Amino acid sequence: MSNHIPLISSGVAGPLGVIHLPRLWQKASLEACGKLHADYPGIGKGYDSMVLAALGLDEAAVRAFIATKPSYTQFEAWIKTQPGVKLDQASIDKNNADIRGYNHGDDVRAGIFAATDLTDSTCSFRGAVELNNLDDWATFHKEVLS
Description:
7 helices, 54% helix, mainly alpha, 2 domains
């Protein structure tokens, strides 16, 4: 059975307008099926936890629902039914701004740059969303294409 590298960017939103939510669904779904690449958590402590907290979702409940193998739109529909869920525009806007505004520390950026043959002078990316994209693409190239 092959393990998959999630390639949905944290900067992508579904119909609810919540960025990173599609990536969280993809990673958690792959984990539930035993198909997630070992370098990735199904639901991790970074953006995943930020989105769950911003929306007021319980991690255990999300994992349990994801185990039923919903499509992405079914996942969003389920989210709407959760008690205490925060889907008002202010909550969504704050989540999106927090994710877009997050920057990795110098050590993480340096590691990603080393893995992608880039440097501070050859790449202007500083935001974690963009750096994570580079990291995903480098892992995909190494593991799948090379």
